[in-house]
Amino acid sequence: MNNMPSNIQSSKQQIIETILTGTAHTKQLATATAFAPANIALCKYWGKRDQELNLPVTDSLSISLGDKGVTTTITVSDQADQIILNSKQLPVNSPFGQRICQFLDLVRPPGMFFQVVTSSNIPISAGLASSAAGFAALVKALDQLFAWRLTNQQLSILARLGSGSASRSLWHGFVLWQKGERADGMDSYAQLMPIAPTEWQDLRVGLLIFSSAEKKISSRVAMQVTVQSCPFYELWPRQVAKTLTELKQALATQNFVALGQATETNSLAMHALMLASWPAIIYSTADTLQAMQAVWQLRAAGVAVYFTQDAGPNLKLLFLAEQQAEILAMFPNIQLINPWI
Ligand code: PMV
């Protein structure tokens, strides 16, 4: 079942052992359930300094999506692993099944198997951060199952081993993932930004979903192509530093326009890197570009609305609750999300 090369599995294994040393391990439940929210990066993570441990080149900053995310129930079994995603059983050798089983191999006591039942209320694999929420929910459920009682910071490191952006899905609100410096990544985890929800309670996220189909190029591959071939990639850390300064300032001063501008610029800069890579990667479709134009049209008419785009054609809009009517009039099919629910 575990066909990951042993040196890769062993560097991950060492991290698991470091984290689990001294955990209580007193009680083991038969089953455990946990929820984790999806998160949308306002300042993107794009490029790894370590492929296997998902260590990023830069810091990144996200907002979690409230009650939109993934719920996972994990149950101990004495048969083979079973993965059920949105009520459908997946072959364990499917790409998603393999990722989950390889992750479980890292923590699996000898002879123990698991049934993993996962349900997502956001589309899977369409650049909507469902794998982030998925791995965060899985580590939270494992923490309960084995009574590890890990801190969120430790769970963030474990979740990162499954998917980089999962490190940010352990919290609600604004979350900063610090890249860390260490080769083993023990200082690469996310943290909650000290901002009270009340300060940004009017902030809303809107999902414009043009396609729920699985993306053709995974973010892992796209990052690799960008880092290896984009002639401008060396400028990216500087752009991220600028975005983060602007975002932190905007958050501290509750300046929504500054938050939106920094977010939209950062997203466009990330996609510009991909456009200048070889082979070029374009996640946008005609629908994406049309929606961008519509956002700019709304802004020209005085509506403060900004977009951000991840590794897929869909857009996420940022706006304030008081402008919901104008947003709905332009985008009747938008899925509205209150990040504080
Ligand atoms: O964690 P991954 O491998 O799904 O990569 C996430 C990449 C982006 O969503 C585009 C950016 C981000 O920071 O979430």
Question: Which SSEs are present, and which pair or pack?
Answer:
Blueprint: H1 6-20, E1 31-43, E2 48-50, E3 55-56, E4 60-77, E5 82-85, E6 88-90, H2 95-107, E7 113-120, H3 130-145, H4 152-162, E8 174-177, E9 190-192, E10 203-208, H5 219-229, H6 236-253, H7 256-275, H8 286-300, E11 305-309, E12 315-320, H9 324-330, E13 335-337
Parallel strand pairs: 5-7
Antiparallel strand pairs: 1-4, 2-3, 4-7, 4-8, 5-6, 8-9, 10-12, 10-13, 11-12
Helix pairs in contact: 3-4, 6-7
Brief synopsis:
With 341 residues, the chain is an alpha+beta fold. The radius of gyration is 20 Å and the shape is globular.
In DSSP terms (H or I, runs of 4 or more residues), the helix count works out at: 9
% residues in beta strands: 15-25%
Hetero ligands: (3R)-3-hydroxy-3-methyl-5-(phosphonooxy)pentanoic acid
Q: Tell me about the largest β-sheet.
A: 7 strands, mixed
By secondary-structure content and strand pairing, the structural class works out as alpha+beta
Q: What is the string of helix and strand elements?
A: HEEEEEEHEHHEEEHHHHEEHE
Number of strands: 13
Residues in helix, %:
25-40%
Span of the ends, CA to CA: 39 Å
How much is the average pLDDT?
93
Overall 3D form: globular
Give Rg in angstroms: 20 Å
Low-confidence stretches: none
